């Protein structure tokens, strides 16, 4: 019997010698979700000038408690004049603080008598003032390489006037579905057939992990054709992912084809679901090797395997530390369970209350029950040969893209 490997051994084999992919330049508007390939330094202070945090009146704090002439009106985007002695300035949110002023009193606290403002006492210097460079100073590192460009990061770049950004090239993934019984939706089912649920599920997960799925191929239960299609897939991809065909049945040809074409690094893991998982490499003519991940055909096994293996692999290829591992949350189990020799990854929903996180397990944890993955937002990790009682603490991997 083949040795069952641990998940740590599998990840070590999968990520061995992985180097981040090259950098390309894209428009900022097309960079959402991409991974920054080079650090970006600030060329501007943010905010670029000292301005008001609200609508009100700008003045010297030393003049608080007096009647002050309103000497100017400053709207956002309007240059401010130096503040005349013994006066204040009507100012609006974002307006430039006039030279000589050091605080802003909100308009609700001011009484106005014609062109005179009656200022309350005890106004501290700096009140309601946003200093130039409070957020970012020119020359500061704005974003580091490896950061994912989501909403706030994109806004940070736009605030510097950035229009082009250097990002990592997306990993190109070829997605293969094996088995004569697996057909595409839209075709009438015949006895013994089933629709391909893995393809759209894995495509979406891979895209969330930062990859580009460049091909989707159906592989028949034929040894020679399996070899041909694996070789073709490797030529145009950084990673080849297959579903099914990695078990021990007579029609499971992927493992044999991988061994014939390239390298089988590891097969069979001591985890549940996802035991029959194959890892290896496929040659590419003149351009090195493509990584190979052979996921089981059961959809839950594919779902769990994608989070455990495809996500960190995409993170390594993108040079993105945030994708390297899933956040771990300690939660109270609302279930009881026991495990055998394999580590169990149970689909659970995490909820939060005043006592912390609670893990709610789905009743049917069979690897063919994909419905359990729809509401699941975490995987409870149950070690081998363990007994978990209701209320006991369990470690959960939070499923975030």
Automatic annotation (TrEMBL):
Its EC number is 2.10.1.1. Pathway: Cofactor biosynthesis; molybdopterin biosynthesis. InterPro entries: MoaB/Mog-like_dom_sf (IPR036425), MoaB/Mog_dom (IPR001453), MoCF_biosynth_CS (IPR008284), MoeA-like (IPR038987), MoeA_C_domain_IV (IPR005111), MoeA_C_domain_IV_sf (IPR036688), MoeA_linker/N (IPR005110), MoeA_linker/N_sf (IPR036135). Pfam families: MoCF_biosynth, MoeA_C, MoeA_N. Residues 174-316 form the MoaB/Mog domain. Gene3D superfamilies: MoaB/Mog-like domain, MoeA, C-terminal, domain IV, Molybdopterin biosynthesis moea protein, domain 2, Molybdopterin biosynthesis moea protein, domain 3. It comes from the Bacteria. It is an enzyme of class 2 (transferase). It catalyses: adenylyl-molybdopterin + molybdate = Mo-molybdopterin + AMP + H(+). Its cofactor is Mg(2+). The keyword Magnesium applies. Keywords: Magnesium, Metal-binding, Molybdenum, Molybdenum cofactor biosynthesis, Transferase. Catalyzes the insertion of molybdate into adenylated molybdopterin with the concomitant release of AMP. Belongs to the MoeA family. This is Molybdopterin molybdenumtransferase.
């Amino acid at each position: 019997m083949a040795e069952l490997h641990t998940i740590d051994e599998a990840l070590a084999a999968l990520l061995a010698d992985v180097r981040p992919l090259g950098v390309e330049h894209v428009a900022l508007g097309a960079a959402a979700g991409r991974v920054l390939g080079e650090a970006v330094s600030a060329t501007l202070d943010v905010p670029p000038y000292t301005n008001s945090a609200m609508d009100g009146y700008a003045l010297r704090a030393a003049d608080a408690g007096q009647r002050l002439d309103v000497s100017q009106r400053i709207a956002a985007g309007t240059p401010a004049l130096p503040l005349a002695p013994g006066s204040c300035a009507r100012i609006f949110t974002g307006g430039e603080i006039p030279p000589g002023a050091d605080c802003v009193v909100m308009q609700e606290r001011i009484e106005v008598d014609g062109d005179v403002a009656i200022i309350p006492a005890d106004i501290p210097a700096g009140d309601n003032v946003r200093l130039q460079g409070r957020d970012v100073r020119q020359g500061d590192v704005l974003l580091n390489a490896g950061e994912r460009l989501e909403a706030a990061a994109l806004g940070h770049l736009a605030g510097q006037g950035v229009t082009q950004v250097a990002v990592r090239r997306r990993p190109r993934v070829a997605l293969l579905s094996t088995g004569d019984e697996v057909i595409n939706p839209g075709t009438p089912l015949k006895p013994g057939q089933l629709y391909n649920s893995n393809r759209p599920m894995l495509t979406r997960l891979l895209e969330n992990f930062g990859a580009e799925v460049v091909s989707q191929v159906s592989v028949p239960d034929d040894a020679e054709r399996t070899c041909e299609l694996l070789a073709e897939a490797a030529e145009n991809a950084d990673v080849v992912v297959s579903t099914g065909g990695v078990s021990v049945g007579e029609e499971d040809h992927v493992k044999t084809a991988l061994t014939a074409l390239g390298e089988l690094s590891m097969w069979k893991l001591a985890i549940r679901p996802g035991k029959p998982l194959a890892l290896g490499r496929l040659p590419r003519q003149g351009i090195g090797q493509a990584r190979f991940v052979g996921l089981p055909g059961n959809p839950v096994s594919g779902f769990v395997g994608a989070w455990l293996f495809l996500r960190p692999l995409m993170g390594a290829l993108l040079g993105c530390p945030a994708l390297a591992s899933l956040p771990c949350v300690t939660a109270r189990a609302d279930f009881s369970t026991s495990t055998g020799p394999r580590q169990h990854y149970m689909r659970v929903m995490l909820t939060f209350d005043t006592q912390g996180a609670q893990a709610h397990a789905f009743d049917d944890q069979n690897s063919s029950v994909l419905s359990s993955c729809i509401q699941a937002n975490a995987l409870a990790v149950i070690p081998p040969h363990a007994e978990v009682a209701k209320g006991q603490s369990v470690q959960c991997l939070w499923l975030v893209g």
